[in-house]
Structure formats: structure tokens, C-alpha cells
Amino acid sequence: MSANGNSEAKTPPTKGNPSLLEARDITKAFGDLYANDHVSLSIMPGEIHALLGENGAGKSTLVKMMYGVLNPTSGQLFWEGEPVDIASPAHARALGIGMVFQHFSLFEALTVAENISLALPGDRSVADIASEVAEVSASYGLPLEPDRAVHTLSVGERQRIEIVRCLLQHPRLLVMDEPTSVLTPQEADKLFLTLERLSGEGVAILYISHRLEEVKRLCSAATILRMGKNVGDCDPRNETPASLARMMVGEEIEEIKASDRAIGPVRFQVENLTRKADDIFGVDLNDISLAVHSGQILGIAGIAGNGQDELFALLSGEQKAPKSALIEIDQQTVTGLDINERRNLGAAFVPEERMGHGAVPHLILSENTLLSTHAIGIHVSSGLVDRKKTGAYSTKVVERFDVRIPRPDPVAGNLSGGNLQKFMVGREISLNPGVLIVNQPTWGVDAGAAATIRQAIIDLASNGSAVIIISQDLDEIFEICDSVSVISDGTLSPPVPIDKTDYEGIGLLMGGMGKSETGKGGDSHAH
Amino acid sequence: METFIAILLTIVSASTPLLIAAMGELVVERSGVLNLGIEGMMIIGAACGFAGAVMSGSVFIGFLIGIIGGAILSYFFAILVLNFATNQVATGLALTLAGLGISGLIGKPFAGITIQREPIEFLSFVNDIPVVGPMLNGIDAIAYFGFALLLAVAWFLNRTRAGLILRAVGDNPVSAHTLGYNVLRVRLYAILFGGACAGLAGAYLSLYYTPFWAREMTAGRGWIALALVVFASWLPYRLLIGAYLFGAVTILQFHAQGAQINIPQQFMASLPYLATIIVLIAISAKQTGRAIHTPASLGRIFVPDR
Which residues of A touch B179 (CB under 8 A)? Predict the structure, then answer.
């Protein structure tokens, strides 16, 4: 606009030296809902800046505007002190903004190089990019094979693609949305080294994470959002995870009260469970045995895609177990029984996938309670749904688990992910099951809601139930489990009492104890 | 020998419209859109093409008008499915019904007229080669165009950036949108290409294959083309095999009748469909589960947020 090179005087001064990216009074409204309400934030070159907040606090909305995926309703972004309207992701990339998404934005049917090429300007051949991918990925210690199709890769490798894809754009600002939620502790450590190196090279990093320990370790500044509003800035190095969580939630998070639980008889037992996967994308389960006692919480740790889903389907009875295996609930053989017959014996199950598997998005909550209670007949009389009972039951779950609902008895699809998760877990726990098996109890759930869910699980175990938790979140496993097994490539390690192991020990098992995650040597154990 | 060559040539003619229409649908489906309206776009192509040729006196112009007719009908489909996010299956079925109806209207004044089937002798020098010569020469220009189209589509999908973007959109429209690609525009172009191909295939029926106009003369070829795309598991080269297999079955059914082979004609007519069902079973019975070339977003509505 101005022919005059020195236009800085015209923009209002941004206190101190010029930031790389500044968001000033950004508001984004979706109808009546303000996802962002006058949010401001500024990031310096070379800074690792944390963006914190609960689910639905508006973090993803904010970074999507920085990346040109969404347009702000009002407010202004500044790039190196100059006002800028980021019109599209291509524009953002041209400025030097790279983004690693929480949910992978990869194309499964395409190769690594093709995936990366799609994010780069179109003037280079895929072959040319493939050679640069090999080079850059090796130099940053993020090994990748450019010609592999993405659907054959592990989650960790997929994330490397996202990161390498950004690095090839030579970004000056790297936005990372929950990058470590799918990594082993060792993989996360490697990632931190990469980030620190980039930061040393002057790249600014905007880091979104629920894991406050790693924020404290990595980041030198933090912006905290609550319900779409700025509620504070801080230096995470001077804070504790508890104080950070308090700022995010706005109130004290209840400490989880561990209980001294009496360990009773075995309530759930599996022996010699072996099953070939149905398709090439599945995982074969090899000779799995486990036993959970009354009052015990067994954690099953592991990186996603190592057989957790297959195991859950067999434990719950969604998938019929082979006759060679033995599964028992309270000493009663249930190997050949389906999920409803197992529920009738006092077991309850919470699958990982909320929408479509654990809940029907278009049905109201009280109808959703029927999904798991129709089998045991408590909400049905003479073949008809007893709406009074389903309504009362869903109200009870909503109250006890503090499920935030926009209006009484909404359709499940209207709940945010964290609230729906509370509802689903609550729906099962409120049945007081003798055996509870939960896949990813707090996946994508914020600190306050996670605490509620974990406390309820502990209380259930204290009352004599046996609980199995399949989780990728090691913090969670160490927080509430009595013992932990690790599933790796379809094999379950023997259980270890939780106080006899640590993150590193579990992390090594998750990586397959010397086997690399993809069955090829070379990338995982340089030390 | 002459009969043999004649049979081969009729197989080529029977296969060409299947190949071209299926090629269009393959591109549409690789972009993630399921257009069940091929039959409707083909019959519109047949009606428009025939009307255009009679009125202008040029078969070439007839073909062009057939292509345009098919593309226009597909454009309506695109507006509904992309801009109004209607259900693709229902919209595609409606497109077929609409096409059949409208084509009857367009074609009515032209019923009973026949046009001169123009011989296309552009390879006269090969006539001296035995067997192959008459074969090459007997094959019409549109059939050659079909082969060229096959090579072009395969090259486009696998070698060009635009093809890569199209595959990406079909695999994961949400990610493609997040990366800044205009998903709806890519799909619009794919749908228009599919409509143009179906229109050409239809015009080929009325201008070369029969050559006259009759109501519902596509006789289910649009549905075979649709099945062929699945048969080929979304790979262009397999489409060639499939189209010729199906074309051959169609022709052999006539010759079986002529040779008094005692197989009910209805059974022969149903063979292409039975073959499709068998291929579908074979695909899903393979331990690989889903075929990896199946576009992951096929038939799903995508509405960009902004």
C-alpha cells in the first residue's frame, strides 16, 4: 500500500520488539456461539509458545484462522507487525506458516511423497520431492520411506509425515495441534529434540497440548483460553502442571483420591486368545491371557493400532471369540456368548469411538441409554421402551457425571466430544457392572472431565468390580491402575504392578522391546 | 475368416460405448462422487447427438452436441450434489429417470429417420496386411478415441498433479480442503467430464452403432458401465478388459441365438450382470478386505466450512 518503506509508525506499536505473528482481538462466531471472543496472542521468532485450554475452549478455531482455513468474524492478524488477512492455507504457507494437525490430514491411499507434494507449491515433481523427503527426514532423525503408501504406516510414522511436510515448506512458524497424543514417550522425546533444534534455528512454534508436563518442559510462553476468551498468559517454566490446569479450568481440579482396595477373587479371565485379523489392516492377536480381580484396575497400554480394537471387540463379545480360547466372567464361561449375553452377566463395555459406535448422533440421550441397557431389560417392559425410565436414567447420568448439555435431553450429536465421553462412561458405570472394560476412557477429554471419569472408575473398583482400561495415555494408567500390561503387535506383556515400573519401562514395551514399530530395524533404538 | 473379423469388429463397437461411459464414471468416482445417472446422461447424449446430426447434416457436429448434452445434464447433478449437498444415490437415480424422459421428448421428431453410417477410412494403407489390416481399418474413429482416452485418463490420474489432487479429494476431502484445495470445484470438473463421456457414449449408439434413434435405446448400458468401474476396481487399464469382456458377451449372445445354441436369450442377456456380481464377491472375499483403490469418500457428502 504505502510507497514509504517505513510504515511501522502507522501501525499501533506492539509493545517491545516485533512479534512474528500477532492475533489481536480475534473473534469467531458460529451463529450464536462465540468460539473465539476477542482473543489476542503474540508469538516471537524462535519461541515455543503453548496454547492451552480445555476441549471447546477455542484453540483449534484460533489456529485454523491462523492457517487460513477459517475467516475471523472480526479482529486482525499481524505478520511481522504488518496487518494480514490470511485467505487460504496456501497463503499461510506462502507466508511461512506450517501446521501439524491433531487429526491427521493425510491421504491414506497415496504415498508419503505424494502426500507431501500436495502441501507444496505445484511446480515440483513427486520424484524430486521424494528425494528431498528422504534427505530432510534423515537429517532431522525422522526416518521415512517416500514411496510407501500411508495406509501401511504406523501412527508415529504418519506424524513424521506431517512434520516433514511442514519442514519442507521451510516454515517460520510451526503450529502443532496435540502432536504427542499418539506417540510413545521415546518418540515424544525425539520430537522435542526436533522442536528444540527448530527453535534454535529461529522457527517459532505454537504448541497445543493437554499434557501439561511436557508444556512445562518445552515451552517458554503460554496463552490460556477458557470458553473462547483469553484468561491469561504465563511462563510455563514458572508454573506447575496443577497451576496451569487451574488456569485452564478456572477452578481447582479435584485430586483423584486413590483408595485402598481389597483385592478379591478373579472376576474376569481370558486364556489363550489367538485370532487372525479379518483383513490386512487388522492386527493378529497372539495367545493373550489376562485375569482381573475384584477391586483391581488393569491398564493395557500401547500405541494405537497394536491390536487394542481387536482385543476390545473380543473381550466385549462384539466379535465372537475362537473356541480354542477361554473367557470367563465370574467363573462362568462366556467364550461363545455375544455382547448382550455378557452384559446380562454383569459386564459393561465402553468402546473407543464415540460417534456411531458408542452413541448414535441423531438419537436423544435417553434413547442412547437403551443402546447398552436394552439387553438387560431394565428400560423395557413387555417389549416396549419405558421412556420414563430411560429419561430418569439419562438424567441421573447427566447429573452424576456433570455432562454439560445445551438443553434437556439433546441429541447425542449436539454434545461436545468430552461431554459425550462422560455420558458414555457414565451410562455404563451407573449400572454398577461387576466387570467394566473401557477403551480410551478419557481420549480427547479435558482435565476436569478426565478427573471425573477417572474418579468414577476408581470408585467402581472400590466397590468390588474388576476394571480393564485400554489407554494410550500413560499418565492415566499410572494415575489409576493397579497393574499394567502392554499390547504390542497383538501380543500382551505379563502384568506388572504399577509401582514396580516407570514410563521408560512401559515405553520400551510399547515400542516392542527392541523390535521396531514397523518390523524394520533401524529407526527406534539409536541408544 | 471374414465372419470372424466381422464378429471382432462388432465386439469393438459394442464395447466402445461401455468403455467411454465407464471411463467418465471412473474419474467421477475417483473424485469421491457416485453418479448413478450414467444411463440418463447416455440416453440424452444419444438423443441430442442424433438430433444434432440430422439437423446439421454432420455426424461430427452430432457427436459434439451429444457430448454437450451429457455434460449439461451432469451439470444439474453437480449443482444438486455439490452445492445443495443432496444425497448422491437419490440424485443419480433421479438423473437417470429425467434423462430417459427428456430424451424421449427430444428424440420424438426424429424417430424413424436413419442416417448414413459414415465409413471412416483413415488407415487405408494397412489394408494390405492380412487379418490385421481389415481389423485396424474396420475399427471406427470413436473406438480409437476410446483407447486414446484410456491412455490419457491413466496418465492423468497417475502422472499429473491435477490427477493427484483429484485422487486426494476422493480419498479425503476434509484434508484436501484443509490443505487449501477447492474440493467442490475438482468434483464439478470430474462430474462434467463424466457427463461428457456418457454423452459421447450415447451419441455413439445413435450415430454409429444402430444408427437411428429409438426410445430407451441405451438399454441398460449405463448400468453396465457403472458396474464396470467396480469390476475394474477403479483402475483404468482393467476397465479395458472389463469393457471388452462385457462387449463380447453382448455380441456372442446374438451369435449364440443365430447358431441355434439352445441357451435362453434372457440368460445370455443377464450374463454381464452376473459377471459383475461374481467380481464384486471376489473383491470382498479377498483377504485384503476393502479394495485399496476404492475412493474412501465415495458417495459421501462434503460441505466445506468456512
Answer: 89, 105, 118-119
